[in-house]
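Shipment paperwork, digital attachment
Item: protein structure file
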Amino acid sequence: MSASKKLVICGGSGFLGSRICKAAVSRGWEVTSISRSGQPNWSSVSSSSSPPPWAHRVAWERADIFKPLTYTPLLTGADYVVHSLGILLEADYKAVISGRESPIASLQRAFSPRHTPNPLDPQSTLTKNPPTSPSQLTYENMNRDSAILLAKEASKLKVPTFGYISAAAGAPVLPSRYITTKREAEEIIAREFPSMRSIFFRPAFMYDSSRAFTVPLAAATTASSVAAKFMPGFVRDFMGSAAVKPLQADAVAEAVVEGLSEEGVKGAVEVAELEELATRGWRKGML
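Attachment content:
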């Protein structure tokens, strides 16, 4: 029965997206990945520069998330559509870190509130004037608007289930817009497209041995998440994702695929439920 399922994932060439593709093809699903690059840059998402054996079972398509006409034909007949795109740092914030711009001016732009219309708003010009370079990518257009656009097209084509890779929380070092735009996307998608079963997966920090720097960070985050249990609530709120248990990227991917396949899973899926879903998925794979 699972062999007949069709998954389309926008952002399938990314760190988590490629692992979702792997987990889905291991179940015999038909998988299509949509991204600007087509196939992943394997050395950036895995420990090898060569495609893994399972990669030939994925249709790696090129499209622009802000131009629906480039990908809507690929959504036809899908059982599941997943949005796995987003940015952690905007260009303004990266410029501060790299020293290319004045910290004061750049940080003011990065941390200041922005009120931009979402793509369902008649005033939005996103599809007419989409971002054309990385410097134009913002939390609003990547974390929020691209997900809403994709959900809109999926709903038009009567896709039964929509998955959105959100986040457990923000972080003190990130502008609050990082997490508020994700929560806005969740709220708008749930409200505007009630015919779809929408699932909002909320992992915290994700790690994998193929990205060596993530392993010690995960260890530190694990320690802080344990300590956070004994701290006042306002301290945990301030710590954000640093107070939440990190998860291995493969576990999150397995949880996403298992969550899609279980009809009873919908709405926000927090870290504890992600762990449960991953365990159920792996057990099924061993049967």
